[in-house]
Amino acid sequence: MGKWTKKINLAAMAIMLAIMLLPIGAGAQSSNTNNFGLDYANNIGLQNTNPKNVIVNVIQVFLGFLGLVAVIIILIGGFTWMTAGGNEEKVKTGQKWIINGVIGLVIILAAYGITSWVITTLNNNVITNS
Length: 130
Fold this sequence. Notes:
Elements: H1 2-21, H2 38-43, H3 51-82, H4 88-129
């Protein structure tokens, strides 16, 4: 039964990830087929977006997603620990999940702080030196 539980968990996580990565909507098709979708990009504001801002936003969203994953890992560990029913093996498993989740959260927060500092420093140096 342990192998099936792992397979079901992996399948559920893959389905959730696929759902999150699906595009929300493609938008209306333009009648002008010679612009290769540039009108759609203009409509959502990509023509005025600085590439630096896009990179910063991608990094922030990625680190936010990783933070969410770390919190979910901590919750799974807590649930495992609370439902152990006195089974020492499950208690230790739950504690390991919690410890690993906290370590991951600390690493993610450190990465967020470092990237925030690097981006601010580069931004200030580029503005003052231009």
